[in-house]
Amino acid sequence: MSDISPLVKRSLVDQALDQLRLRITQGVWTVGQRLPTEPELSAELGISRNTVREAMRVLAFSGLIEIRQGDGSYLRAVIDPLDTMKALSQCTHEQARETRHILEVEAIGLAALRRTDEDLVALREALGVSGSHYHGDLDSYIACDLVFHRRLVDAAHNPTLSELYRYFSSIVGAQLRQSLNIFPRRQEVFDLHIELLDAVEQRDPERAKALSRQLINEP
């Protein structure tokens, strides 16, 4: 019996993706730059326009490019967000907690200084919805809680922090789910969210950061 493994035939779309990702990592295009058109890429790669279109859809789904209807495709990132998510998913509970202290606490301190009245309206709405689910279905509560925390970070008005936190929020959700599957939900923990919002509303960054640390350290 032969020990030779059968060859795996890769699709043209996969091969096109390899070529496009290679150009991105090599810096052929810069973030924000308009990419060549489908006919141009088709001619350059020696493949059909349909294959190019499918490859571009995959890149758009992963967050590397943005397809603007009637305008073209633009490079959005040079690191594949899906690869980032895979790396994040392997972090330990303690590593996730440490990262939250570095990222979330400081962002909330900035939010207390920079929040607008519109931010407060959005935060109150998110907290109200979260509170209505606190003693109900766990997955529904976690989804609502993440909206509140993302809006807190957004209130810092730093797009880079917001983007980083969006990547990381899935890990926050997993950490929260793990904790709440072990420890019962306590009203005093949810009340910390109310105090946190009050600190942001009162423009008290040190109190907001202290409450954020307390929430993160809760089991």
From TrEMBL:
Limits of the HTH gntR-type domain: 10-78
Keywords, in A-Z order: DNA-binding, Pyruvate, Transcription, Transcription regulation
CDD domains given in the database record: WHTH_GntR (cd07377)
Cited InterPro entries: GntR_C (IPR011711), TF_FadR/GntR_C (IPR008920), Tscrpt_reg_HTH_GntR (IPR000524), WH-like_DNA-bd_sf (IPR036388), WH_DNA-bd_sf (IPR036390)
Domain of life: Bacteria
GO molecular-function terms, A-Z: DNA binding; DNA-binding transcription factor activity
Coiled-coil regions listed: none
Record protein name field: Pyruvate dehydrogenase complex repressor
Source organism (scientific name): Pseudomonas frederiksbergensis
